[in-house]
Write a structure and sequence with these properties.
One of its GO terms (cellular component) is plasma membrane. InterPro entries: DUF881 (IPR010273). Keywords: Membrane, Transmembrane, Transmembrane helix. Belongs to the UPF0749 family. The strands form two sheets. The protein has a five-stranded antiparallel beta sheet with strand order 3-2-7-1-8. With 299 residues, it is of the alpha+beta class. It has a domain of 111 residues: Alpha-Beta Plaits (2-Layer Sandwich), CATH 3.30.70. The chain contains seven helices and eight strands. A hairpin with a 2-residue loop joins strand 5 and strand 6. It is 47% helix and 15% strand. 15% of the residues are buried.
Amino acid sequence: MSRTEPEPARSYAPDFLTELFRNPLDPGYHDAAEHRRSQGPIRGWRRGTIRAVSLVTLVALGFLLAVAYRQTLAEEPSRRQARAGLVAQIKQREVETDALARRAEGLRAEVARQRDAALTGSDAARLRDLEAITGLGRVRGDGVVVRVADASSKADAVTGAGGTNLGRVLDSDLQNIANALWSAGAEAIAINGQRLTATSTIRAAGSAILVDFRPVSGPYEVSAIGPDEMERRFRDSAAARLLRSVAASHGMSFGVRKADDLTLPSASEAHLRYAQPSPKATPTPSGSGASPNPSGGGR
């Protein structure tokens, strides 16, 4: 019977996870800790220096904050005074503008009386009809009033965060309302008492909306005189559907109602420009045989 030699003992190397849980500290951190331990505890003078530097830094930051706060308080009265002065100037200019507008309205009425007295009955009636159509005369009748207003702002009073108000009325909203009313059959339109004509403009200047370069503020009322079907046609328009969607999503105020016996004021006198032929232009005779398209090509 042969003897069997004993088998050599097997050695098992730990896998990666076992080694990771056994020695979780990175060797570099271990060496740094051993280096600090070999140097001994931090001396008292070094600890005191660190505390002194920290204290000086905190004192300097506090001093800078105090100086900035005092400067802000010192400049606040001047800023408030400048703002109050600008607001007073704006209000004064508005009062003067309104007074001039009333004077101009009175002069136009006087001119109209003198003109009607000089014209015959048929000519005066025709002129009044043309003024009503072009917006240069006051009109009266039944119609529709569209009212829109900004949604309540959610901006924080201190930080100003959340100041983006998607429910704010834009100049394009008033443009769309006016165009939809014209398409619905409106014969005369006014925005907050500002009569629209064929040359009227509705533009934005910063956060303000200008109608014929006159500022209007919310809530905005677009009054229109027209047929009975105008309200239904406007409600079915794309502009009304868009505004209803914005009102439901972002809180904008939007409403449409019928109105009886509306009175819309006349617009300011329009500054018309007429095209005139140039005195240097030389007309080409129609029988000269010259081609109207010098390039010889078509569209």
